[in-house]
Amino acid sequence: MPAPEILPDTPEGHTRAAALLKEGRLVALPTETVYGLAADATAPEAVAAIYAAKGRPSHNPLIVHVPDLATAQTLATLPAQAEALARAFWPGPLTLVLPLKPGHGLAPAVTAGLPAVAIRVPAHPAMQAVLRSLQGPVAAPSANPSGRISATTPAHVRDGLGDRVAAILDAGPCTVGVESTILAPGESTTRLLREGGLPREAIEPFTGPLVADTTPGARLEAPGQLASHYAPRAPLHLGGTPHPGEITIGFGATMGDLTLSATGDLAEAATNLFAILHQADALADQRNAPAIRVAAIPETGLGRAINDRLRRAAAPRD
Ligand code: TXA
Ligand code: MG
Q: What CATH number is associated with residue 257?
């Protein structure tokens, strides 16, 4: 297979990406959170190719990306609370798990056979342009091999997936840096299935207290929430005193070989998180380091999503 085509972030690049998707090919597309490994969500073979390219278990469903709320409403039913959240936060780093509507037209593998679909309206202008050019829903998990560190740059995509994608739309690094927050809005309460780029503090004024349902491995409702995930090759430890030879990642006043944010800014730390983990892993390789150690991050705002990713990266592997 040839190396992936690198598409520019121009109208021509967007049209070319949509044309490849239409042909059933896989294209890595930028979103404001992370790069997505995209396919036409209505094409069963294209969706099957996503699972194959990532090595993703087929019981772990995919997020469907649409350009706006009106398109989301053609695929799924939005309870009142879901619609309020959509109006407040779409486009943006929020995914809603919603009951499918009859005649939705999605390939069954997108939802892994579940009666609910995870939908997101991304804000990234390039992704928006591709969705509007394709005029159809796009299934896209994060563009990394299953269980590994997510991709926030085209180089990460190429390193992780190589020629398993037909093309990469290069719009530079992602700004938010962690994946979308996933919510399952119910009649009275809303469950939080994954911490992400939209902090809990922003959501709860709309929903009341969220019911956290993010325990790694506890259930398969968001089966991506398996204990070990986002794993660098080297073992990763959180907090504590560094041991000799470890690669250290600092935050704020805690210095390291690398830092998530020298000023202790959580938004900057989220933006940098996956790139720093990729770099730390490369350094650990180079120096034959026994492990990577990350400074403690406050459990507030975007710090919750950062800590969630770090805990999974540190979790015991199979
Ligand atoms: O920011 C993001 O959300 C990125 C960009 C590319 O949009 N996508 C992303 O996809 O993070 P992925 O596949 O890495 O994570 C999707 C998560 C998984 O944990 C999956 O189990 C959950 O969403 N999910 C998908 N469909 C679901 C459904 N119908 N019910 C419950 N959870 C679902
Ligand atoms: Mg992922």
A: 3.40.50
Q: Which of 132, 127, 57 is nearest to 93 (CA)?
A: 127
32 with 159, same domain: the answer is yes
Atom of ligand 1 minimally distant from the CA of 225: 19
Query: What separation in angstroms does the CA of 138 have from each of 49, 173, 244, 270, 303?
Result: 13, 21, 46, 25, 29
Q: Do 45 and 158 share a domain, yes or no?
A: yes
Give the residues surrounding ligand 1 with Cβ less than 6 Å away. Answer: 31, 33-34, 36, 60-63, 95, 97, 111, 114, 116-118, 120, 140-142, 179-180, 182, 193-194, 221-225
Q: Provide the residue range defining the domain that includes 11.
A: 5-212
3-state secondary structure of 259: strand
Residue-wise pLDDT tens digits, 152-207: 999 999 999 999 999 999 999 999 999 999 999 988 899 999 999 999 999 999 99
Cα–ligand 2 centroid distance for 142 (angstroms): 4
pTM of whole model > 0.85?
Answer: yes
